Amino acid sequence: MADDQGGARTTRVRRLRAKSETPPTAESAAAEPPAAEATAAEVEPPEPPTRPTSRRRPRPWLRTAVIILVALFVGAVVGGGSAYGIHRSTKTFQSQALLEIDQPQAIAASGDEGVVAKLGRLRFKYAGLVRTQVFSGPVAQQLGLPQGLVASSLYALADQQSLLLAIGARTHNADQARLIAQAASQYLTSYVRDEQNRNSIPEAQQVTFSIATPAGAARQVAPTRRREVLVGAFVFIFVTGLVAGLALVGRRDS
Hints:
Layout: H1 2-21, H2 26-31, H3 35-43, H4 60-87, E1 92-102, H5 104-109, H6 114-129, H7 133-143, H8 147-153, E2 154-158, E3 164-171, H9 174-198, E4 208-213, E5 219-222, H10 225-253
Antiparallel strand pairs: 1-3, 1-4, 1-5, 2-3
Helix pairs in contact: 4-10, 7-8, 7-9
């Protein structure tokens, strides 16, 4: 009996030894992770995720202010250049004389305003004559200037409120403008007198032109200060708006 018990024990011990010496299968190895890896995972904590670095964007109002300042600067430069260009352009000078048409005896004998009205209309006849070759030719010959220059520079204006007729000249030379206006005013007085003498009109009934204000020193009429300011202001506003508008539209698209 004791032998049977000892043999059973021996058989059980052998089975346990055989079981312990049997190599682990692939399934058992996959089911049970290695102790070393589990220990390492427990010892070393996972690294925290890194946050992406981002640049600090400029504030929207600051970019808008910079765009406006740049647009104002460009507009001021271009507008100032335009105004300076007008200022440096070719200057035009003007001089004129005032002549009065009269018919003394006819006015004195008339009991109404018919003679005055007739003289007022008669001024337009001679105002239209001033720029013709009949008038400008002798003036140019007297001054020794080209007839085309004299004809293009002369003008005549009839005052609606009086019997005055303005005769003047506009040229790019101040002294030349005064000489042409002075010679033209003097020639008109003699032209009207000679015309009536050729038509045998009695001297007492003749219409006369007399110089009320002689041609004075020429003054600059172009370019004017007002034109310089207007051109500069217009270009400044246009360029500033254009630059600012294009910059802001491009900013929205981006």
